[in-house]
Write a structure and sequence with these properties.
Elements lengths: L5 H16 L4 H8 L3 H9 L5 H11 L3 H6 L40 H13 L4 H15 L1 H7 L3 H5 L3 E7 L16 H15 L4 E11 L4 H6 L4 E8 L7 E6 L1 H6 L4 E4 L14 E4 L10 E6 L6 E7 L3 E5 L8 E4 L3 E6 L2 E4 L1
Parallel strand pairs: 1-5
Antiparallel strand pairs: 1-4, 2-3, 2-12, 3-4, 5-6, 6-12, 7-8, 7-11, 8-9, 9-10
Length: 347
């Protein structure tokens, strides 16, 4: 059985994603692959995806599967049938037809140009220096090199592991959230970044430590949060001196779900699991799961509610954990949206 360097494969997946969707395009790339952002994050950070996902990555980015697996160029493009796998006796069969463009640069919109450049330098190594000088001249003319050197990635500047607390469950969600719809994950990341950026440099009034408890048992979340701790940071408001804006500071959760936001629970219908004043973390890219805790928005009702959710053919059951409260059933058409509670924090 041929061994593969899993870390190197994961790095090449990240490279393909950045070339295809940009450095901040995880959500877009995950949607293109037909998987959730959290699942894709798990693959890019922790484990090589299954073969069907690897095939989809190659299909979307036009990458050579052999290059993705080994880092080496090939003259033929390996092909697999869906559901196939690498086993002890399995063999990788090459396609009978060579692709029109192959090699170490067989991916991305500029693969033909890069392949020709690679061939040119391979046959004429003495041209490496003048070609590099020409490229640097072009970069200088376009200001590209200056931009690379002076502008760090937005995520490193604008969001230092801060997750905005947007409101309370009994009062609706504040700031940019619409009354009936949620933004696309890419839009949510942008607007959350703008929100956080406005408050960087403001005075921190107080900070309290809390314990993170996992509510949605997805592998990426369970494996990703190594230290179940977070801080609730209160920052002085921008326009009014006496206003306060709150953020959850937890780099590990933010890295797994960069589009995440937080709400504070108002009431005890979910106690003893989630209590009054606890903070729940959600992501626009992670919808509610059957039988799990979620935040739901119901038509013609003020605010949002935190409940266990079970769906039937005709209705949606909103189930409290606290036995003092009754289960409510609403028509499916009245459920505007529901997002899974990823975890909650008790301060």
């Amino acid at each position: 059985m041929k061994s593969f360097n899993e870390k190197a494969i994961i790095e090449r997946i990240g490279l393909l994603r950045k070339q295809h969707a940009g450095s901040r395009g995880k959500s877009e790339f995950a949607r293109t692959l037909g998987i959730s952002v959290s699942t894709y994050n798990y693959y890019e950070n922790n484990r090589v995806p299954p073969i069907e996902v690897l095939l989809k990555i190659c299909e979307v980015t036009e990458a050579d599967l052999n290059w993705l697996l080994t880092g080496k160029e090939t003259s033929t493009m390996p092909t697999f049938q869906p559901g196939s796998h690498f086993g002890k006796d399995s063999k990788v069969m090459a396609s009978q037809k060579s692709p029109p463009e192959t090699g170490k640069f067989a991916f991305g919109p500029n693969n033909a140009l890069l392949r020709k450049l690679d061939d040119l330098l391979a046959n004429n190594p003495e041209l490496a220096e003048p070609v590099m000088a020409f490229i640097e001249l072009l970069c200088e003319k376009k200001g590209i090199e200056k931009q690379w050197r002076t502008e760090p990635p937005l995520a490193k500047v604008a969001r230092p592991g801060w997750i905005p607390v947007l409101g309370r469950t009994a009062a609706g969600m504040l700031f940019f959230w619409d009354q009936t719809t949620l933004p696309e994950p890419k839009q949510a990341v942008t607007e959350l970044d703008e929100l956080v950026k406005r408050y960087i440099g403001k005075s921190i009034i107080s900070s309290a430590g809390g314990t993170v408890s996992i509510d949605l048992q997805v592998r990426a979340l369970v494996d990703g949060v190594k230290k179940p701790e977070a801080n609730l940071v209160q920052v002085s408001g921008q326009e009014e001196a006496d206003s306060i804006v709150e953020f959850v500071e937890c780099e590990q959760i933010y890295e797994l779900f960069p589009d995440s936001f937080a709400l504070q629970i108002d009431g005890d219908s979910m106690s003893p699991r989630i209590n009054d004043g606890d903070i729940v973390i959600l992501s626009p890219s992670v919808p509610a799961a059957q039988g799990h805790i979620a935040i739901a928005r119901i038509a013609n009702q003020i605010g949002v509610t935190c409940k266990l959710i079970r769906s039937t053919e005709t209705g949606v059951h909103l189930i409290p954990i606290n036995e003092r409260y009754e289960t409510k059933v609403v028509a499916k058409k009245d459920l505007l949206w529901a997002l899974a509670v990823l975890c909650h924090i008790s301060i």
